[in-house]
What we know:
Layout: H1 2-25, H2 42-62, E1 72-84, E2 89-99, E3 105-115, E4 123-130, E5 160-161, E6 164-165, H3 179-184, E7 188-193, H4 202-211, H5 222-239, E8 243-253, H6 255-266, E9 272-276, H7 294-300, H8 324-328, E10 334-340, H9 348-364, E11 381-382, E12 387-392, H10 400-411
Parallel strand pairs: 4-7, 4-8, 8-9, 9-10, 10-12
Antiparallel strand pairs: 1-2, 2-3, 3-7, 5-6, 11-12
Amino acid sequence: MKNIFKRIPLLLLLFTTIANAVCQNSLPDVFSMKNGRKVNSQREWSEKRRKEIIQFYTDSVFGLLPNATKYKQEYEVYEKETLVLGGKAIRKQVILTITNLKGNKIAIDIMVYYPNKKIKNGFPVFVLQEFLGNQSLVSDTLIKIISTPIITGNPEKKGIINNLATSASRGVYARRFPVEMLIDSGYAVVAACFQAFIPDAAQEAKKVMADFYGLNIEQTGTVSVWAWGYSRLVDYVYSDNKLNKYRIGAVGHSRLGKSVLWASVNDSRIGIAFVNESGCTGAKLSKRAKGETIEKMNSVFPYWTNANYKRYNGKDTALAFDQHWLVACMAPRNVYIGNAEDDLWCDPEGEFFSLKEAEKVYNFLNIKTSLPSDFIKAGQFSVTPPCGYHLRKGNHDLLTEDWINFIRFFNNIK
């Protein structure tokens, strides 16, 4: 009897290994085109299959991104270059006003930090969308408090009263923004709040989608607008000669992990997609049927994706596609996925194996990869480009340990 109990962990490991192998073998082939043929050249991948996949996700999952040519962008300096962090860094704040063809406007508060030193071609930069306004990332009272309505759970605990940020929101998410470490590592960062682009609530999003973007919430989900928001922050990077427009990494956590992946697939100016705990419809494989399902996500957040995506409710294991397709569309550019051990809703193992499947496209393009063959343990990481992954201890969050690994990966890109 004692020997049987000793063998249980080994049997569980064996069962998990077999289950993972079965799942991977049953995944839809990323190289099979709509006409049934297999991709047989690198050119065919880049010019046909990759475009097919992006069109599929546009039609069936996320919807169209807004057309940037239909909007006017203007920058207004709110805070001039200011020495901060004991003189280590320079910070400035800029208000981006976006105007549509009808003259309607939205305002985006952009916060910029970069090291206080000279560099030849500008600083490599992390572009980040955050959840509660820039003031939530830093306690400094000079940071402008966002005036855009913030819709969030447990608002009072976050300093949000009647959907508006108050001074009590200053620094509540500082754990997600180790700015001094980023500066010490030689990086700049550009940050803005995702809800400045479109609210994270059904009725409010429907109104903004129609009135400002001229789109139907049934055809375009908010993930596409948040993805578009990343590209507007990249536009800012291109306008600032202190920043290196050829070394841009975009960071997104949770729903913004989904958004940053979709943004990066569509915007080739983003050299690295840092996809943190993105879960269902992000990097996670749905066919594993672990963690959040498509139906669960669509029932709580139906406005994130378009109406066509609801056709897949309850059909996770029968999908003719899966998220490794979308991750693979980052090739040949860099993609990095971060997970937390206890974040079972995101299925860390499913995100890892999604990246492993996408790795096949990089290899097809004759790009060497270095991901481990098996799922890693908490505290381990693989930070050799172009495909990176880490698993930390803990729950769903964006923490210093995640950023440490992001920096390690970015440092390895020359």
